[in-house]
């Protein structure tokens, strides 16, 4: 992938994400409240495997096979050795705290491996309305507590590949340090992350900014304190803080500081190189060497010169151990790791070597000599010490056929995370701009003529930002429009697609649509450095061909396909709304509609299209040639709006959106947008979509990301919005979900949700009856039949996590419920979500919270918890609801 392409993608993505960011507060909503029930959904990702930048990988040095990965916008993950997959840890982050899905650093406690910490926050400028926080978990990320900070953190800011900025003292694990950006200095906690205070004795908060003249505050922010490293050889014993601490600073003249008195005083390391930033500082305490990877910029995209240095901690001697001469570098160094089994073995990456490929260097003699992952034989031919197997993620070839010396798949780009497993010299993982790669035969590198195998180690880690979704009535069940990787035709939700959209391959797809009565006709619009910004398919998205851009087009915008696929309306960036018949060989300007309007098509009449801009709804009945403003009033005044038209319902339009300082909610029109009615009780709504009608229902199922009944979540209605069911829960929120939502026209209850960094999540219901609301006159409590599903979803030494689903198999609705059980092995519940819990002797009682009290006949309610165990962790021997035995599902 070209450097210019990545830069364009990131800047467009950053702008796009923030343009759709959720408001920080809500205006007062309607006085009436919607009726809200709850359903138990099973949530999964539509598999892509990766798709975004992984700037950090952290192995625990006390326990084998315990590792974490951090992403810039998609949360943090824990490695599952048994399945070689990653488990997401921050799906509980909600709408108001969406910025906490950006992770600037992760620290795994080297004394107590159950403890893990995450420093979270996405942007340090005003794009992110909330301050950063430090999350702390006593159970490896199954549950978290949060300490808010008085400043912002930048998980998606320049310099995010440096680190780790958060570190736990290996001798006194109640002591943690955090390097802050924006001139806020170095911070310390002495109570295991509960409270934090600035280390006022630290002399330098940093001064480097990527672009001091950037008025947005994005590239002009001081990148601050970039890493903290303890010298464990200087500890005074357990419970006594480590004496010597090294800290990296974003200051090209003063990049490394040291304290030899546990942080009381600090000094600049004498004799250090200048003119560079130290991206990483990794200590080999056994041999007394601090290794440093330097670049002339902060990354992760830029970097033209770099050096590797070794600092002898006992003598203060600096040695340039760079594998190539400075004049021969066109990149900076960042990824840096020491083999803890053989500390003289060190590896580093040329993270900003975009073309022809990244480079990885390896030494087995502490930097005296180096080998590299690939080298030229006779230019442009190259010889690789590795082979690559991307069969598990075939799209990583990008469908490319480059000329030598470039190869596909690439070894990587943005390779700032590089770690050798501290317990296994053969295992190494490294992050790229699109995936996590790894090997389990790394030491074959050192054999004469030997090669090691690199393959994706990314399953379960989903990090795409989703811009649009479509689920056609035939063909592939899902089409996605994504940032960075363009998007996919998902013929299976449980398998990785073979390739993203190509011919052309947009850097980001901003909008897509299919013809409702001819779903093999698909159109997409997106961003591209050079080439068309629109593409068409006549085989349901399997193959594509580019259209022709009108003059002035600079970005994808939104696009709509006529119901029969005979015409299209496009609202690109850079010019006004356009229309065409056929497949975009020529475009004409639409009249009567402003530039930048959002456009959609009627799903029945092929000549009817709709638009929205700044509070006004527009209608065209001549294929997009002319639009007329409707007489509808009271709609949101801004442009944070998304609207959809009902399949099979001519003139049936649903509109969601708004802002805190004006109308904000969900509106419905049955006369083609001439008038709209606001739905009562929907406090705020940001997306709307349709799925298969419930059994016995005549109207398609509605889905929305909204606040209803005072609760923010993903909601479903089977009765045209009269009543609503929340289908997600507090453990499944995924930060911001305001870009797109759609149901599946072929599977009742299935919903696809766009996230900002966690990929496409989809949910399936346990409610086969199709009920939404509680129905009239619910019983005061559960007296009928029930069934329980109890599943241990994760287990580790001394702890576990479980999900419970309670189903009402009777004929009457419940209005309030409680479930009792006894643990046979003395297990203890430590934390529970989506239910209250209490314990009396060996009996645990879980009872409803306010929003999930009502359970209709045939419906289910779900909750989860973490617990402790010793000896065995057997399943409870029996469950009971209101004193009645409740059998477990088989």
UniProtKB/TrEMBL annotation:
Residues 763-784 are annotated as: Disordered. Residues 1-27 form the signal peptide. It comes from the Bacteria. Keywords: Carbohydrate metabolism, Glycosidase, Hydrolase, Polysaccharide degradation, Signal. Residues 779-889 form the CBM2 domain. Coiled coil: none annotated. SUPFAM superfamilies: Carbohydrate-binding domain (SSF49384), Oligoxyloglucan reducing end-specific cellobiohydrolase (SSF110296). InterPro entries: CBD2 (IPR001919), CBM2/CBM3_carb-bd_dom_sf (IPR008965), CBM2_carb-bd_dom_sf (IPR012291), WD40/YVTN_repeat-like_dom_sf (IPR015943), Xyloglucanase_GH74 (IPR052025). CDD domains: Sialidase_non-viral. Belongs to the glycosyl hydrolase 74 family. This is Xyloglucanase.
């Amino acid at each position: 992938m070209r450097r210019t392409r990545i830069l364009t993608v990131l800047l467009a993505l950053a702008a796009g994400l923030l343009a759709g960011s959720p408001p920080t507060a809500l205006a007062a909503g309607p006085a009436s409240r919607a009726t809200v029930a709850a359903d138990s959904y099973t949530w999964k990702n539509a598999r892509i495997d990766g798709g975004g930048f992984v700037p950090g990988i952290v192995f625990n040095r006390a326990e084998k096979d315990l590792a974490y990965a951090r992403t810039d916008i998609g949360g943090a993950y824990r490695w599952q050795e048994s399945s070689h997959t990653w488990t997401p840890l921050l799906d509980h982050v909600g709408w108001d705290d969406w910025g906490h899905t950006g992770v600037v650093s992760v620290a795994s406690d080297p004394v107590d491996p159950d403890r893990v910490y995450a420093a979270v926050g996405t942007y340090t400028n005003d794009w992110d309305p909330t301050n950063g926080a430090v999350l702390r978990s006593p159970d490896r990320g199954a549950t978290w507590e949060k300490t808010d900070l008085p400043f912002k953190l930048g998980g998606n800011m320049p310099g995010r590949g440096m680190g780790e900025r958060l570190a736990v003292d290996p001798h006194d694990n109640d002591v943690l340090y955090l390097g802050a950006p924006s001139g806020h200095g170095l911070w310390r906690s002495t109570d295991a992350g509960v409270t934090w205070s600035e280390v006022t004795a630290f002399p330098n908060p940093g001064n480097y900014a990527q672009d001091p003249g950037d008025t947005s505050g994005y590239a002009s922010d001081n990148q601050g304190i970039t890493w903290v490293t303890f010298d464990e050889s200087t500890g005074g014993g357990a419970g006594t803080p480590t004496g010597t601490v090294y800290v990296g600073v974003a200051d090209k003249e003063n990049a490394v500081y040291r304290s030899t008195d546990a942080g009381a005083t600090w000094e600049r390391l004498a004799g250090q190189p200048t003119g560079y930033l130290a991206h990483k500082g990794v200590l080999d305490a056994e041999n007394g060497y601090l290794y440093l990877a330097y670049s002339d910029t902060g990354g992760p995209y830029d970097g033209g010169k770099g050096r590797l240095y070794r600092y002898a901690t006992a003598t203060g001697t600096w040695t340039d151990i760079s594998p190539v001469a400075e004049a021969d570098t066109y990149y900076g160094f960042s990824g840096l790791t020491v083999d803890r089994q053989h500390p003289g073995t060190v590896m580093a990456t040329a993270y900003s070597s975009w073309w022809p490929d990244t480079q990885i260097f390896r030494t087995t003699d502490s930097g005296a000599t180096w080998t590299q992952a690939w080298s030229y034989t006779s230019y442009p031919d190259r010889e690789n010490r590795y082979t690559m197997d991307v069969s598990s993620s075939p799209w990583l070839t990008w469908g490319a056929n480059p000329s030598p010396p470039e190869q596909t798949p690439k070894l990587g780009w943005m390779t700032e995370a590089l770690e050798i497993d501290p317990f296994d010299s053969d295992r190494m993982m490294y992050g790229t701009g699109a995936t996590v790669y790894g090997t389990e035969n790394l030491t074959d590198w050192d054999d004469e003529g030997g090669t090691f195998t690199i393959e994706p180690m990314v399953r379960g880690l989903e990090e795409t930002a989703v811009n649009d979704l479509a689920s056609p009535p035939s063909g592939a069940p899902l089409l996605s429009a994504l940032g960075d990787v363009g998007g996919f035709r998902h013929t299976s939700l449980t398998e990785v697609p073979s390739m993203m959209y190509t011919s052309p391959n947009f850097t980001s797809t901003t909008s897509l649509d299919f013809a409702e009565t001819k779903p093999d006709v698909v159109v997409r619009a997106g961003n591209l450095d050079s080439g068309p910004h629109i593409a068409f398919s006549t085989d349901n998205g399997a193959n594509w061909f580019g259209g022709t851009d009108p003059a002035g087009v600079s970005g994808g915008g939104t696009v709509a396909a006529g119901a029969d696929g005979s015409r299209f309306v496009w609202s690109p960036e850079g010019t006004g709304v356009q229309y065409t018949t056929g497949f975009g060989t020529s475009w004409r300007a639409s009249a009567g509609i402003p530039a930048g309007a959002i456009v959609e098509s009627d799903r029945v009449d092929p000549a009817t299209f709709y638009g929205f801009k700044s509070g006004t709804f527009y209608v065209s009945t001549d294929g997009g040639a002319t639009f007329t403003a409707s007489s509808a009033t009271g709609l949101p005044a801004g442009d944070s709006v998304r609207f959809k038209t009902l399949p099979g319902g001519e003139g049936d339009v649903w509109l969601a959106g708004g802002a805190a300082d004006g109308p904000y909610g969900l509106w419905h029109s049955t006369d083609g947008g001439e008038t709209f009615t606001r739905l009562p009780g929907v406090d705020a709504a940001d997306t709307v979509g349709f799925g298969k009608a419930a059994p016995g229902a005549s109207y398609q199922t509605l889905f929305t990301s909204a606040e209803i009944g005072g609760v923010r979540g993903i909601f479903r209605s089977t009765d045209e919005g009269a009543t609503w069911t929340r289908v997600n829960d507090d453990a499944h929120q995924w930060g911001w979900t305001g870009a797109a939502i759609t149901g599946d026209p072929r599977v009742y209850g299935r919903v696809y949700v766009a996230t900002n960094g966690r990929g496409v999540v989809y949910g399936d219901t346990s409610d086969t009856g199709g009920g939404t609301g509680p129905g009239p006159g619910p019983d005061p409590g559960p007296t009928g039949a029930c069934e329980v599903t109890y599943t241990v979803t994760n287990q580790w030494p001394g702890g576990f996590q479980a999900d419970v689903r309670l189903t009402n198999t009777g004929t009457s609705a419940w209005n309030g419920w409680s479930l009792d059980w006894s643990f046979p092995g003395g297990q203890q519940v430590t934390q529970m979500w989506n239910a209250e819990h209490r314990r009396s002797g060996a009996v645990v009682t879980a009872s409803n919270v306010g929003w999930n009290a009502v359970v209709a006949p045939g419906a289910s309610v779900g909750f989860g918890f973490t617990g402790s165990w010793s000896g065995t962790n057997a399943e409870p021997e029996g469950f009971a609801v209101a004193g009645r035995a409740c059998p477990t599902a088989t």
